[in-house]
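COURSE: Structural Biology Practicum
ASSIGNMENT: Worksheet 4, Part C
STUDENT ID: 0417
INSTRUCTIONS: Below are two proteins. For each, the amino acid sequence is given first, followed by its structure token string. Answer the questions at the end about the second protein only.

PROTEIN I
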Amino acid sequence: MDSVEILGLVAATLTTAAFVPQVYKTWKNKSVEDISLTMYTVLLIGVLLWLVYGVNINSLPVILANGITSALLILMIIMKFKYK
């Protein structure tokens, strides 16, 4: 693994981890009042496209980051409907 791949993995970890506190807070408080469904839906579409791109170029950092971020975004969208 070269330094560029390591840089990509660190960046992927940080940007993906940024969603975890919001998911936890939403789950804990069961409050989705201030969560924008439109924003999360558009972001999910973009992240899924990045995931497809990552698979096509065989880039582990892109695949991991966008796969995990997709799961977190789907969870947020589910909670948006569940706790509405």
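PROTEIN II
(use this one for the questions)
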Amino acid sequence: MGDSRAESIDTQASESSIFSPPSDYKRVKHLKKFHKKKSGEQLWLIKLPRSLDVSKLKTLPLDLEGREQPIPVEGGNDNDTQYSIGEDKTQRGGQDSSNLGLLVPEENRESLKVSGHGNSLKFDKIFSVRKNAQIPKIDYEKVTVPRSNVVKVEGLRTRHYASGYGPEDEDKQEEAKEKDTSKEEHSEHKSKKHKKHSSDEEHSKKRSKKDKKK
């Protein structure tokens, strides 16, 4: 019983691991026309977005230094359909650091195999065509709303405190405010006294001058 059960499990596992290609894939009848890479040739991968119609491309400008270049599209580029092409720098460093793999023909040219690491076939350069987002011009003077200050309500009391703070901290702040207020009032009172004293002296001087004239 145990052996038959194990065999049935293995059979189910092998059946579930059978590869089924996507529905839109077409079966290749033969691979004899598959181009073999020669010495001095490079294999490039150019990734395109679905929104770009390849038949409308006039040219495909490439900057070998990796800078992005705008792509001219037949009929002109609309404001919402600007494209550019540039080298995918995340895939630099060869096959060992790339997350992309190549399917290459077997020696009998009847089936495909995944190209391995080392001296196997790999992409020399990878380019990506990107759809650029066009940011419209904004008239900030028209869209900016003037700030309105919140009306301050007097007599509010703090019920909730931030972490590390409590009512005693608020009491200290209130005491400091009261001290500052009392100092200001005291200085104002002293200045008033000084002014009054100086005015009294001036008044007495004027009276003494009048008495001398008499």
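ANSWER KEY EXCERPT:
Q1: The chain has a mean pLDDT of 71.
Q2: Residues 40-141 form one domain.
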